[in-house]
Structure formats: C-alpha cells, structure tokens
Amino acid sequence: MVKANLTVISNFIFLGFTHYPKVKVIIFVLCLLMYLITLLGNIILISITVLDSYLHKPMYFFLSNLSFLDIWYTSSALTPMLANFVSGKNTISFSGCAVQMYLSLAMGSTECVLLSMMAYDRYVAICNPLRYPIIMNKSVCVQIAAGSWMTGCLTALVETMSVLRQSLCGNSIINHFTCEILAVLKLVCVDTSRIQLIMLVISVLLLPMPMLLICISYAFILSNILRISSVDGQRKAFSTCAAHLTVVVLFYGTALSMYLKPSAIDSQEIDKFIALVYAGLTPMLNLIIYSLWNKEVKTTVKKLLIRNPLCAFLIPSSK
C-alpha cells in the first residue's frame, strides 16, 4: 500500500461558480432573493402561528417546524456563498466547514422525515377526520417532531464525523460553493468504501422510504377526494395535492440524483446547480405552497393587517 503524503488542512477554498463567470452575478442575485424570501416569509409564518390561537393545530405545528428548519437550512448553505461573493474571499476554516456540513445535512435529513410525517398528518385529517383529534393529539405531534429532529441530527453527526475524521491528501480546494459532503469526500486520500456504505444506508432510509410513505399517503388522499360530489371541490383538492407533490418530487428527486447515483458518475458541475435547487429553491417553494397558498394563513395575515396597519409595510397583503 502506498502511503499518502498527508498535511494538516486549516482552511478550504471553494471553487464555487468560477467556471461560469458570465452567470455568477445572476446566480448571486437569484440566491439572494430566494434566501430573503425564505428567511422573512418563514419568520412571519412562525410569528403568526404563535400569535393566532386559531392556528394552534397539528398542521401548523408541523409547518412551524418546517419553517424553522428551512431558515437554518438555507442559511447554512447559501449565507456563506453570498458572503464570499460580496467579500471576494472563497475560503472557510476547517471548523467552519465542519459546522456548515453538519447543519446542512441535519436540516436536510430532518426535512426528509418531517415531510413524510406531514403527509401522514394530512392523510389522517382527510381520510379519518372524526378520529383526527385523537390520533394526532398534542403529545403525538411533539413526539413526531422530536423524532424527526433527532433522526436528522444523529444521522448528520454520523456522516459528518465519518468524513472529517479521514485523512486528507493536502488538497484544500472544494469544487463546490459549500462544504457539501460528497465534494469534501473527494479530498479524502484513503479508501472511502466504508463511508460510502454508511452514506448509502442513511440515504436509503431518508430518501426513498419517506418518499414512498408520502406517495402512499397521497394515494389514499386522492382516492378520498374522488368521492367528493362537488366538481369545484375536487378541482381545488387536486390542485392543492398537485402543488404539494410537485415540491416533494423536486426535493426528493434532486436529493436522490445526488446521493444515490452510481459512484462512477462524476457530475460535480451539475451537482452545484442541483444543490441550489434543494437548498435554495425548494425551501422557498415550501413557504409559498404549504403556507402562502393556505386559506387559513391568508385569513390570519389579513386579520393581522386590519388590527395593526403598520404590519402592511412588512407583510404583503394577500388578495
């Protein structure tokens, strides 16, 4: 076995989108807009959910959890990239890279589990409305949310520790805009088959299995919708389900293409744009589709604007 020439790495350098100088500014503007919309929108959603007792329901409890983790998710992935673009520096410390990798993995993994639990909540609410308050009581909701967070945080800790404990070969250049685990793994100069096996097992548990649960839940929901006698009611219900499933397919689809692709396929440049979709675009779409399209949320926002007109400067009115 050839012994690798190992050096201690204290800082990493991001290549980011340096291969695309003509679109760097466009990418920066789009990412900034996605981040600001996600950040401000989710803060507003969490605030009105806490302030309005009418929204103290299981669905909005899960939406608040989703909003909270999406704030951290986009912040961990996009904020360093935006800051580096403004400052002109593309470096990050080893400890900073470890924190960024862990937060991105933890929030992404938690979202994978939480979205499936939210689909189950909708299944119970629509298909078993009379038993819904009993099945999805406060204690159960807290346990589901806590289980989602624990699963995401623990699996992220395992993956992060598995990669960063390995020996690096002195190459400190990460071909990405963030400390994405697959990009950092390419800097490891020892056999990574064990790490890849760990990541494969975790990816299977967190991606296709929750997605399967979501598909089963929505299959029962759609079956129940077909029994609605009102054509207008069916149309609205199908529209809502289609919007939810679009976000689900986009989030899980891009993550699946990243973490369950054959190791022989080298698509680092494509991976950067895929990462922008599931770390930037889908959190923003979560906010718009799960929350801003929601009739009860719109009603609450209007009530808040009527009570306090000054809020109109912060919250755009929904017509």
Automatic annotation (TrEMBL):
Key word Acyltransferase present: no
GO cellular component: plasma membrane
Cellular compartments annotated: Cell membrane
Transmembrane segments: 25-48, 60-79, 99-120, 140-158, 195-221, 242-261, 273-293
Residues covered by the G-protein coupled receptors family 1 profile domain: 41-290
Chief localisation class: membrane
Membrane topology field: Multi-pass membrane protein
One Pfam family from the record: 7tm_4
Molecular function terms from GO: G protein-coupled receptor activity; olfactory receptor activity
Entry keywords, A to Z: Cell membrane, G-protein coupled receptor, Membrane, Olfaction, Receptor, Sensory transduction, Transducer, Transmembrane, Transmembrane helix
InterPro entries: GPCR_Rhodpsn, GPCR_Rhodpsn_7TM, Olfact_rcpt
UniProt-listed Gene3D superfamilies: Rhodopsin 7-helix transmembrane proteins (1.20.1070.10)
Family recorded in the similarity comment: Belongs to the G-protein coupled receptor 1 family.
Chain's role: Putative odorant or sperm cell receptor.
Protein name (database record): Olfactory receptor
